[in-house]
Design goal:
The chain is an alpha/beta fold. The chain is 43% helix and 18% strand.
Amino acid sequence: MRTTFKYTAILICFFMVIMMAWEGQKSDAAVAEVAIPKDSIRLRILANSDGTQDQLVKRQIRDTIVEQMNQWVSGLADPQSLEQARTLIRSHLPELNALVGAELAKRGIEYSFNVELGVVPFPTKMYGGTVYPAGDYEAVRITLGAGQGQNWWCVLFPPLCFIDAGSGDAAAPAATKGAKTVAASAADDNKVQPAVGKAVQKASVTEDDSSTAGKEPKVRFFFWELLQNIWSWISGLWS
């Protein structure tokens, strides 16, 4: 009786592990399937420097801007269009500028900043396992001080900024195993529209269409084999 109970407990544990692994695979697939469309608007925040204080300020400004922008963009009527998002962001540039200024003032920081919407240069970036080549992309670029520190970027429209892409810099695309290089096209507005900020420093600046086809069959095959092995093991317990 005690032996049967032990085997039953082990069996339950195995099934729990399988279920957790399966959920994990589904979550990973969901993230991998998030694609950055050609027609999109990015957000890039360049820190003053790599110093601890400057990086902290960058993250705090990031949180404030992303929260506010997501509220504005999500308020658009469905279906949303790139032109709608562009118009919305342009109309709120003074408010974005004020938000950045308020965050800096709150912390007693006096260096300059600049908020702009336009087609700006991005270095090679990686997003969701996909490498996006360096090029010009439409974006809201926020430069803090000298803009020489590590950057943070995401996609404002469609709103994908809930995913923290970090810096996402990819130094050597060819060395990235399994990464797909996507040819990106820049938006058609070649004018950079500065908001009210102050001096800008030179900033090098980044995107998707990740293909997950072919991954699902492998996942299913793995779990089918695992189930077969477990069943064989269970059958052996009572044989």
